[in-house]
Amino acid sequence: MRRYGDSKRIRDSVAGYLLVTLAALLPVRIGAAQQTPSPEEGLKVLPLTVQSVAVKGALPLNDPLSKLWGQAKEVTVKLIPQTAQEPKLAKASIGTVRVRALHNDGWVAFRLDWADPTADNNLRSDKFGDAAAVEFPMKTNPLPDYRMGSEDKPVHLLLWRADRQWAKQSGKTFLERNYPRAHSDTYPFAPRAGEDKIANQPERDQYLAAQAAGNPIVPGIAPIIEELNAATWNQLSVQTHQDARGIGVHRNGRWFVVFARPLVTADANDAPLPSGSLGLVAFAVWDGGSEHAHARKMVSEGWVRLKVK
Amino acid sequence: MPHQVFNWQINRKMDYWYPEARPQRQWAAVFDINKCIACQTCTIACKTTWTSGRGQETMLWNNVETKPFGFYPTAWDLRILKMLGAQKWGKEEYEGDTIFEAAPEGERYLGYRPDDEDWAHPNLGEDECSEPIEKGAYLQVPHAVWFFYLARICNHCTYPACLAACPRGAIYKRQEDGIVLIDQRQCRGHRECMQACPYKKTFFNPVTGTSEKCIGCFPAIESGMQPQCFTNCIGKIRLHGFISLPEKAREDNPIDYLVHIRKIALPLYPQFGLEPNVYYVPPLHVKEKFLVQMFGPQVEAAKEAYMKAKDDPTLLGCLLLFGSTPRIIHSFKVKGETAYAYDDKGGEICRVPLKEPVYIRPYFDEARAVHRHNIS
Ligand code: SF4
Ligand code: SF4
Prior knowledge:
A: 30% strand, B: 376 residues, 2 domains, four-stranded mixed beta sheet, three-stranded antiparallel beta sheet
């Protein structure tokens, strides 16, 4: 039994408001267990390079299976369970992700593919979607921890989620998908037959609290590739300017997903990646079927070099 | 990594993901189980106020289940009790593990996420054991035939597991009243809170992709009113207020009086370690073993004190204030045959007689030359 006899742990109360203290206290790891990797591990740069190949004309932003991808050199990146932060991923599942990159004058596109026999794109209280993310340091010197950065060293993320793609493409809600025969006598302010749909929209929206509050993750509203910044585990912000593009396809037991972004934008929250630059990139993959979400994920072992030349 | 915090309900320090940080005041409630009739008016009051939107169809922030066979979601308490395993209450303190201390390696807590279908049977086991007894019990169970109604809402815990678990930091506890909220702008629908909360009081909305929970009717609280499920309670089983730490208990604060001073209202599963803030007057007719598991070792003493309430004007007066006003009672007193309730500025809100006046009319009504029946 673990009890309060452990002198390493903080015993004293800290007065103040939990919300206010959260941000300040989270990155502090007190009495960290031996299994927690050291901070240096987060700064690892792997002896691997993703070499983006220049293409004339348009990139296959919406076609993960385009022949053009054959022009790019494939790099296989090993994935390990995330163990830097609780909750850790107890069981490894997806072992590797294959990466290719193409760019033109304005954009760079990455195609990730990995083995996952089931395409999980449903969202229900007990169902999670497959997902993957591509991460860039905002600055390479000093280098941020590839595990979501830190307060003074943030990172830029592109996140793809299969469930959001399903919602966007189908135009349906997960309510319709999971409970096709559901019936509710009435929804407040729902228009009746012949009534103007728009008339009560603001009142109706109040009953979808997250949507009314402007949460950008609402299925159907959330983009297929979401752009975010992170400045440690719980400091995540969805960007106001969503410039990224891309899409996923599940074929023969593998996901093929394109993540594309402009090389340079006016957005100060985008990691700059001018043509001809040497950069760094990191990867994460979630297996929805194994209930992966947030920190329960497979990650690359460190930063991977990136050449956009 | 966990910090050490003090939990007065288990009377010891324990592990928690964040340092101790108590709010200025703590939202709290006392439910008198003995008076609940499972009319579900509270459930509907909540449902029509907060969860009648799309994606909230199976969400009951307030639910009333019949114990021992009712659960919402299915088997919620049995499952976490089983995962935690047999634990021990000592003489002075709880000697077992809380859900934070029993966390598996790499986790912040011990918990599980219910299956989707588990939310589909809110009336499971309702009134079970209430079959005509003269025919014999139709269910052979190890205990004598009994049941009771357990009304449940979010406990706005002092050490919320939902908050500790959220990897996004989207759950917060308000400093002004201790209400625990999921920020609907920040939630990313990871459902760690659903897995962590042992009371299973956070819910997933598949339309918005976020988790939602009881908001303690904070707009009502901010204007000095009790929550919807309190003011609409037909059985008048509920009293809302603010609870102090035991050493700071105020005799004239009705919640402090019932929980700390008279000790007739007890937290639900205090051994989980969350310091939940809905306190229950335990049902009188239920076997002690069952109740000790549910409310801790003080159960018998609480029952005894409650039984004597009829000869105890202050306690009786305090209990009679339940359901007497929609406003929050900050202090009360009993003088003579009347209980008085006051707001935060000491202004009188209402008064309740300790005994309802009784008028006995003759059986025969001379004026109308008719017999009076109890319906006339
Ligand atoms: S309204 Fe009151 S009496 Fe009715 S079920 Fe709810 S708690 Fe029980
Ligand atoms: S009862 Fe559950 S949802 Fe409510 S505060 Fe406690 S842990 Fe959170």
